[in-house]
Amino acid sequence: MRSNIGSRANAQCTYDNAHVRREWRTLPRATRKSFTDAVVCLQSMKPQIMTTAQAHQYAGVKSRWDEFVATHINYTMNIHDTADFFAWHRAFVSYLEEDLRTLCGYIDYMPYWNWAEDSAAPQNSPLFTGDAYSMGSNGEYVSGRTDTWLAQQDVTFPPGTGGGCLKSGPFSKMVVNLGPLDLPNADNVASSFQYNPRCLQRDINPWFSKNYNTWTNLTEVVLKNANVEDFQWRLQGYNSDTDKFGVHGGGHYSIGGSMMDFHSSPAEPLFYLHHGMVDRIWTIWQNLDIGSRQNSIHGTGTLGCSVPDCPAMQLTDRLPFGFVRTADPVFKDMMDTFAGPLCYRYE
């Protein structure tokens, strides 16, 4: 990566002064605690952008954290299976990182979770010990459950290793206010922004991680997809008979609970570590052929709608961020972690 940086547009951002994002388990205990404390801080902070006049329409938005969740809900159909999937989520994670630091005193940068390290038994990962320096525990085990069939993917999977509210850790008292909208075996809300207070649930499931989040899965998505169309479809699990979730979907489903809801999954703090890993994979893929991949995009801005029925996205388009930011960024400004408003790298 260092050899690729000299040609970048932001001459002030270098390999040596770029912010460094590190894998969760490599962080010192004090940094982990600072991160989870900052998350709880945002969950306790009043909304920063939603106005009083909008509160009735967005009844479930009770905090700054909820503003991020509501924004993802609002644009779900425009940021998945789309040209801007990677760039939008890169910006989303970066904006949360900024808020954690500036509003809540977090002392480092956004960590990521390399789920390939834990794919054989994610429930035993050091992320989920449930102590004060973890990302919280698994959910309480719920017995007596049967297999679930997902019609869209035509996949049947077994219950996970939890299923209930988090047993311990920094988020065991967390209140999830929005969603779920599309969660299997759940009472989904009738309207997108309905107030629905409940605990954070997890159902860590090695069936998904063993099938979709292994080192082999990770290596193949990076090395066997030379063009962006194939890369993004394979990573997301679209248009594939053999990899129906991709490492992206596998990461969501392997955590289960709140993380499985297509719309409101950012309610789960682990969402941001997972998407940090997704962003890291995209960054690695880009840097393997920086000349042709740095600004390579493909697709429209609407899930399931292809050209000519929907217009192809352009790098001059603005990415919508609703309650997250008052000004929407330009697509191209989110294509390079060493240019525009960004200056970070992955360790």
Automatic annotation (TrEMBL):
PROSITE patterns found in the cross-reference section: TYROSINASE_1 (PS00497)
Domain of life the protein comes from: Eukaryota
Residues in Tyrosinase copper-binding domain copies: 80-97
InterPro entries the UniProt entry points to: Di-copper_centre_dom_sf, Tyrosinase/Hemocyanin, Tyrosinase_Cu-bd
Matching Pfam families: Tyrosinase
Key words, A-Z: Metal-binding
This protein's record includes keyword Metal-binding: yes
Keyword flag Metal-binding: yes
Entry's Gene Ontology molecular function annotations: metal ion binding; oxidoreductase activity
Protein name (record): Tyrosinase copper-binding domain-containing protein
Organism: Dothistroma septosporum (strain NZE10 / CBS 128990)
